[in-house]
Design a protein that fits this description.
By secondary structure, the protein is of the alpha+beta class. It has 23 helices and 16 strands. The strands form six sheets. Strands 13-14-10-15-16 form a five-stranded antiparallel sheet. The protein has a three-stranded antiparallel sheet with strand order 5-7-6. A two-stranded antiparallel sheet has the order 1-4. The N and C termini lie far apart (63 Å). It binds a DNA duplex (9 and 15 nucleotides) through helix 6, helix 8, strand 9, helix 15 and helix 16.
Length: 544
DNA sequence: TATTTCACG
DNA sequence: ACGTACGTGAAATAG
């Protein structure tokens, strides 16, 4: 058992008139390791200030309107009821359920010593069809309805995920089957919201002024990649682009007299990856103005594109001329970025073997320099036992270290290499924490010390509450964007490629963005807000 | 407790 | 011969 020791004087923070203690502890037995691993600077200069920023963020919380939460809940519950009613009234489902009951009775009879169970037995009769049970869905879809298995789970069972059912819809044998699939998908959409997000939002706390906050935790140092995580509740996986994202985001509203705003980096991981690998085909997206998706779509599917040549204008015209091919390039790019192979493209993106092989080949042909950079990283890791991350962080690679000098790299070590290679890029998310620290110091030295408060951070984004005042927003815009533009890490320096971000005011809720340009004047900001206000009024006239 | 699903980046 | 996409957290179900 290690001795837990305080290694730094706790900082006393004033928050809402209360003294709050920010402390950090390190297990004494781990301290020599930290120093030997050269993690002290990261710890002292970044982790400690981040603890303070995160404490303030956790104390601030996210502004939420409980009436909107109940509105969303009612809407989702009504959809849930529609689906459950459909299943209750579906002869096919009830016939299936009857077969399940008989099977259960037989199973229980076989297990019992003497007793013979039948479906009227209370233990069996109380069972209902549960579309939330993947076991039941598996029996329904693949055994009873007779569909072919198209996806397997990690445990090699037939997958019943939403994505799988979406694929099956296209092969529905009867209109009734199609209806069942549609209701299963709809139910899957609302079930996560009703089981996880709505209950957590209902835990928002009422403050003395009558406004509400949702308080969660931001966890530092618990990930492989220097990213933060968030828990109890997780504030980093609030629906953002999924089907009911809008109605959930509308629950997050600024309180009276305040604004809710934030800033996210422009393509942070893409850009930092281009800079650290120095791959010309990644860099030229930013130096020459190529659209990355168009460029890759041309690489993969150029033979299907008439009249496209390798100029910026021509390549970028793919977005309009071949939108489907451009869309089709996205999923395989993700898979290949994370170290997937043509097998992955066949299994997860639905390509045929020749198609998948072609895309794999063209991807690696396009990004040879980035591939070499990763290879070199892995070779180094075999010797030194770690892969370096942003800000001097490290991810250990014990399995790779064991393979030094060996010709063959075991599968588990390859997996470790993929994870570590990915962490090298993901770790630049810590630029967000660095920026929030610097911004906090500027705020605390400004007249806005009590009127600009950090509310959340989601990997490449920082969110704040600030009093509703054009001077304040102009100050926040100028300073936050400046803090987020910091690019002093040697591997990120570049004459023309600059890390950038943009301020957004979420008004009247998180469900709507009012984009504020960098360096906007007070008049510009006021005009943009007025325009948003008028658009909102017009919207309310249409849908009262 | 292990597995599956699904939300985010 | 193996097995074939990275990192997180939460809830429900099965056994």
């Amino acid at each position: 058992m290690g001795v837990t020791a305080k290694i730094a004087t706790p900082d006393l923070l004033k928050y809402n008139g209360q003294d709050c203690l920010a402390t950090w502890y390190v297990n004494e037995t781990h301290k020599p390791t930290m120093i030997a691993d050269q993690q002290e600077q990261l710890y002292e200069e970044l982790f400690k200030p981040t603890v303070i920023t995160l404490l303030q963020t956790e104390l601030c919380g996210m502004p939420i309107n409980p009436k909107k939460v109940q509105f969303a809940k009612l809407h989702l519950v009504s959809i849930e009821h529609t689906c459950l009613d459909y299943f209750n009234n579906s002869k096919l489902i009830q016939d299936f359920h009857f077969t399940q009951l008989i099977a259960l009775a037989e199973k229980m009879t076989a297990k019992a010593k003497k007793k013979i169970y039948d479906i009227t037995d209370p233990i069996i009769a109380r069972e209902v069809f549960n579309p939330g049970s993947d076991t039941q869905l598996r029996a329904l879809i693949f055994d009873y309805m007779g569909y072919d298995i198209i996806n397997l789970t990690k445990g090699k069972q037939a997958s019943t995920s939403k994505g799988t059912i979406e694929k099956l819809i296209n092969h529905a044998k009867t209109p009734e089957h199609k209806e069942i699939f549609e209701h299963l998908i709809k139910l899957a959409d609302v079930s996560i919201l009703l089981s996880t997000f709505i209950p957590s939002m209902e835990k928002a706390q009422r403050l003395p002024d009558g406004s509400y906050r949702l308080y969660g935790n931001f966890n530092l140092g618990g990930t492989q990649s220097l990213r933060l995580s968030s828990s109890d509740p997780n504030l980093q996986n609030i629906p953002s682009h999924s089907i009911f994202a809008q109605i959930i985001k509308e629950c997050f509203e600024p309180i009276i007299g305040w604004l809710f705003f934030g800033s996210d980096f422009d393509a942070l991981e893409d850009k930092t990856n281009a800079l650290i690998t120095k791959d010309p085909n990644k860099l030229k997206i930013y130096t020459d103005g190529f659209c990355g998706h168009c460029l890759r779509a041309f690489s993969y599917f150029g033979d299907k594109m008439n009249g496209i040549i390798e100029t910026v204008t021509s390549i970028n015209s793919i977005k309009k001329l071949y939108p489907d091919l451009r869309q089709d390039s996205k999923a395989p790019t993700f898979a290949l970025t994370y170290g997937g192979s043509f097998h992955t493209l066949m299994k997860n993106c639905g390509f045929t073997k020749p198609q998948a092989k072609q895309i794999e080949k063209m991807y690696h042909q396009l990004y040879t320099v980035a591939d070499k950079w990763v290879d070199n990283l892995v070779e180094q890791a075999k010797k030194i036992g770690y892969i370096p991350l942003a800000f001097g962080g490290r991810i250990r690679t014990p399995l790779l270290a064991k393979t030094v000098g060996k010709v063959k790299v075991p599968f588990a070590a390859q997996k470790e290499a993929r994870s570590a290679g990915n962490a090298a890029t993901q770790s630049y998310c810590f630029l967000t924490q660095r920026a929030m620290n610097e911004f906090r110091e500027r705020v605390w030295a400004s007249p806005y010390i009590y009127t600009i408060l950090p509310a959340a951070t989601i990997h490449d984004a920082a969110y704040y509450m600030g009093q509703d005042n054009a001077d304040l927003i102009k100050w926040a815009n100028d300073n936050l964007i400046d803090c987020m533009a910091w690019q002093q890490l040697p591997e990120l320096m570049h004459p023309t490629i600059k890390i950038s971000s943009g301020l957004e005011i979420y008004w009247p809720s998180w469900g709507n963005k009012v984009k504020i340009p960098n360096n906007a004047s007070k008049q510009q900001i006021k005009a943009l807000c007025l325009k948003a206000e008028q658009e909102e009024k017009a919207k309310q006239l249409i849908t009262p």
